[in-house]
Fold this protein.
Amino acid sequence: MVGFYGDIARQCRDLPAFKGMNIRQWNACSSTMSAWWCSALAGYDDWTLRRYREALTSGPLLVDDGRSFSYDDPGSFFTHRHPRTMFGVDRKGWIYMVVVDGRFPGQADGATIAEMVFLAECFGLVEAINLDGGGSSALWTAVDGVISYPRDNGVFDHAGEREVPNIILVR
C-alpha cells in the first residue's frame, strides 16, 4: 500500500512504477509534500519498487545517513508548532519513537520541524523521519495504555486518539 494525499493518489496511480500497487488516497496534509514523494518514488525503476509489498509515505525527512535536514519553506507546517511524531534509529540500531504533544498552550505546545531535527540530533539519530502527529499519533504501552496526549477530543487527557489505518508496533 502506498499512501498519498489528495489528488496526488490519482496522478501516481497512472505511473508505470506503481501499476498493480494498492494506492490509498488520503485527504489531509499538503499536496506539495505529496507531489514531492510521488516524483521521488517515480524515479525508482520497477524492479526496485516491486521488491516491496507495502510502503507508507510521510515526512519530511529529519536526518538521513547522519545528515540533518533544514527546510526554508515558510509554510506553517514547517515553522509553526504542531503535535509531531518522529521515528528514528541511532548508530547502534536502537529505535526511537518520539511523540511531541501539542495544541494545548502551556501544557503541550508542539514543535516545529527545526525543533524535531534538533531533538533527533540530541538523541544521536542517524536516520529520522517526521510522521503524522496530533490525534493520529498515540504512544501506547501494554502496561499503561495511551501515555501521550492525543488531540482529537480537545481535552488534555489520554483519550483523544483517532482511528488510523496503520500502526508501528514494537514487541
